[in-house]
Amino acid sequence: MIVKVVFGVLLILTIYFAITFFKDYAKVSKEGNLEKDNFWIAGGVGFVANFFDTLGIGSFAPLTAMLKFFHLVEDRVLPGTLNVSCTLPVVTEALIFITVIEVDPITLFSMLISSTVGAVVGASVVSKFDEKKVQLAMGLALLVVAVLMLASQLKLMPMGGDAIGLTGGKLVIAVVVNFFLGALMTLGIGLYAPCMALIYALGMSPKVAYPIMMGSCAYLMPASASKFVKESAYNRKVSMSITIFGVIGVLIAAYLVKSLPIKVLTWIVIVVIVYTSITMLKAYSKNKAKESQSLSN
Predict the structure, then answer these.
(1) Number of folded domains in the chain?
(2) Long-range contacts of residues 283-292, Cβ cutoff 8 Å, at least 24 apart
(3) Sign of the Cα pseudo-torsion (216, 267, 246, 235, in order)
(4) Phi, psi at residue 74, to the nearest 5°?
(5) Alpha helices of 31-130 — where are they, by DSSP H?
């Protein structure tokens, strides 16, 4: 029964977001005010990021690195673009993994709802950030993700247990922490790595990390992304391209790919994330110095 409720709520959230997003895109496109960025490069970036996202690496950090490398998105609208563009690909992932991996329905539903509420609260704040705040927040957030991924690679994090659900105090901890992870998601810090760490630390089976973390993102992203759309705090053309090719990447990864050297790829991703974080923080320092200089003059 609860699983049906999960699917029903997810369907409603997704339809609401899709209508909001496509109406906004069509309106701006008709006015001839779409961004001039390369649709096909953005599509390639979206395909790659969401392909590896389906395998558990996460998409926000690699996507940020690639968008920065190809100079596709301004820093100010980067959080909104990440949330809007990855919403439908992540919903596709969640629908696949929730149906094939067994997880306690109450644990799943509680964590999904808490992350969604956190995202709505976070998006209301982040959508109004100026460029400097975004650069600082994302630079620090990416460093946190890199540290968590490094800890996982070096087996410094708890490796989990065999539970498929939580009760009592552990369930309360999971719900509260997932609320804050949902809020942080709107800054551009991916939920996968910290959510996986949380699940392992609470003694749950590593397998249930997939439906919980993907389901959490699928629930929170339509809500937070709709807020970014309404605030026009995202890149429409890049988001549409990543959405289309991202869904294709998810389906190929989920149904066609049997094995990849994930450990090697994860090391590469960690290096890229650290580089992107340093780039963001340097851009923040540069803007801060310019602002100080203009004030002194």
Answers:
(1) 1
(2) 283/75, 283/135, 284/132, 284/135, 284/136, 284/139, 287/131, 287/132, 287/135, 288/132, 291/132
(3) positive
(4) -65, 145
(5) 39-54, 60-69, 78-100, 105-126
Phi first, then psi: give them for residue 47, nearest 5 degrees: -60, -50
Model pLDDT, residue 169: 92
Q: Would you state the structure tokens that stand for residue 4, as one six-digit string?
A: 């049906």
Look at residue 296 and tell me if it is in a domain.
no
Query: Residue 12 above 70 pLDDT?
Result: yes
Domain assignment present for residue 297? The answer is: no
294 within some domain? no
Q: What is the pLDDT of residues 167-219, one digit of tens each?
A: 899 999 999 989 988 887 777 777 777 787 788 778 888 778 778 888 888 88
Residue 163: strand pairing partners: 204
Could you tell me which of 56, 45, 44 has the C-alpha nearest to residue 262? 56
Indicate if the pLDDT at residue 121 is higher than 60.
yes
Please give the residue range of the domain that contains residue 9.
2-288
- Domain assignment present for residue 15? The answer is yes
